[in-house]
Every structure is written in C-alpha cells, then in structure tokens.
Amino acid sequence: MRAFMVERYGAEAGVRAAEVPQPEVGADDVLVRIHAASVNPLDLKIRDGDFKLILPYRVPFVLGNDLAGTVVEVGAAVTRFSVGDEVYSRPGKDRIGTFAELIAVRQDDVAPKPTTLTMTEAASLPLVALTAWQALVERAHVRPGQKVLIHAGSGGVGTIAVQLAKHLGAHVATTTSTANVDLVKSLGADVVVDYKKQAFETVLHDYDVVLDPLGGENLEKSLRVLKPGGKVISIAGPPDAAFARELGANPVLRTAMAVLSFRTRRRARRRRVTYEFLFMRADGDQLRELTALVDTGTIRPVIDRVFPFESTREALEYVEQGRAKAGKVVVTMT
C-alpha cells in the first residue's frame, strides 16, 4: 500500500512516499481504509524527533495521527464494529500512521463517523476534539458560569475548544488575529482579543481556566489572568511529572520532566494557581460523545485547505510555514 514515511528524524529529511506492507490485524483491531487524514503540528514534532524520549518510534515509520475511513476487516475479538462501518479515529500513540491507504486500529480507539459530516470534515476532528474534551471536560471540569480563555481560537484545537466551552456553559474569551475575529465570534466566543492590537493579559482577569496551545511567553502571561484557584492547561508547555507517570517513564525521565516544568509550576504556585501539561490520548468513547455533539450541530469542523494524498509533503510544509489561516488542513485519498 502507499504511505508517507519518516525514514530518519529531522526537518531536512522530511517524509517520502513509499510502498509498505499492509498492516497486520490483531484480534482487537479494525482495519480501516483511510479516506482522509488531517495534518497536525504534532506530526511535525514527531518527524523532527522532538518527542524521541517519550515517543520512541523506530524509523522508518508511517506518519499521521488522525483519520476518517471505512472498516474493511475486523479482528476475531472485535464486537463494536463491522465491515462497511464508517468511522473516525485518533490511533493510540504507539499505533500512528494515518498518512497511508490502510491502518489497523484498536477498536476502543475508534468511533462511528458523525453522519452529518463528509469523510474530509470528520478527519479534521479526532485529535483536536479529543484535546479540547480532555482539557475542558476531563481536566478542568468546566461548569456553567465559569470564565474560560482559549488561546488561538482560530487554530485547530481552538476552533473546537471555543465551541465545546460554550456548550459547557462557560463565558468564553479567545485570542486571534484581526482576520479571524468574525470567525471566532461565530463559533461562540463572548470576548475576542485581537493580539495584533491588544495584550490579552492587560484586558482579561479573574479567569477560572486557560487552555494554552502556544507555550513559551504566552503560557507565562496566562498565569496572570487566572483568579486564585484557577488552572492553566497547556499542550505546548513543558511536560510535568504527572505526564511522566502517565507514560510509565523511568525515574530519570520523571525527574527530567519535573525539572523542565519547575519554573512554570513555581510561578503558578506564587499566584495560587495550578499548571498542568496535557498530551492527549486516544479514546473512542470520548469520540462517541463528540460525535453526538457534532450531529446535533453543537460542534462544527473548520477546514482551511484540502490536499490530495499525493501532496502530503506539501500539506505538511503548508502547516509548518504557518500558512493555514483557520482550522485544519486535510489530505484526501483519490
């Protein structure tokens, strides 16, 4: 089958098209013929080797982290799906490889595709929608009336997180550029800070939750807008010891992660707030919850551009160069 491979780590090496063997299907797996897959910043970080210590993929490997497609084979122990089912998924972190014609995925990491969406639209959702869910529902327990700040509201995670936070009853603020102010308002944002005109930390205050997909200075400034007892959840900040424990990392790696996040955690404590790092995980049951929200119109995908599968390299470059204006970039099979 055709696939796009990482043969060695590094941006210079990039990815290349190749013919690879069809995946083996385990007893608990479904084999999915992929119709579309989306591009995430995570793909670039994996390609470049940024996560080698915590996600030690053995090169060569197929890149790609979410998909929509049709089940074409089921393992002997599969009970939740049948051949012909239309599904979408973010495969487990040890089973990536969606820039390919076929993939074998554990049945617990798969969910029925929203009936109201095309394959292309559905493929844009799994990773970013699960990230938003795990940050706002699972970690922050957002409740009606709370104030939630979603940074980069026009980005892949942001477009879904703004809608989900609004569905949860929160008062939602977001940051974006001038060109996307109307978009994020249409997604439900109550307060929009145009970062080209205003510094969010000077106009927002007393927030309960901040979701930060940017890290760095943006993360440090986010601590200032929280009220005592508030929480910032970052998908781009330094990993912490809790994440290391989730990974089952050895003591040396746990200590290293604790050191990496020490400065941020100390600053958070001084402000009587908390900092958490989130690396989303695959979860088919959570995707089913999100499917229901999509099919009722509560959450809608936002797609920036669609590339043919043969142009997967160009799609990765498009995202890497920051050319996407809003939402997700998707590659589709012919």
From TrEMBL:
- Lineage per the UniProt record: Bacteria, Bacillati, Actinomycetota, Actinomycetes, Kitasatosporales
One Pfam family per UniProt: ADH_N
Task: Write down the InterPro entries for this protein, in alphabetical order.
Answer: ADH-like_N, ER, GroES-like_sf, NAD(P)-bd_dom_sf, Quin_OxRdtase/zeta-crystal_CS, YIM1/Zinc_Alcohol_DH_Fams
* Enoyl reductase (ER) domain mapped to chain residues: 10-331
User: What GO molecular functions are on record for this protein?
Assistant: oxidoreductase activity
Q: Which UniProt keywords apply?
A: Oxidoreductase
Manganese among keywords: no
- Its Enzyme Commission number(s) read 1.-.-.-
* This protein's name: NADP-dependent oxidoreductase
Which SUPFAM superfamilies does this chain map to? GroES-like (SSF50129), NAD(P)-binding Rossmann-fold domains (SSF51735)
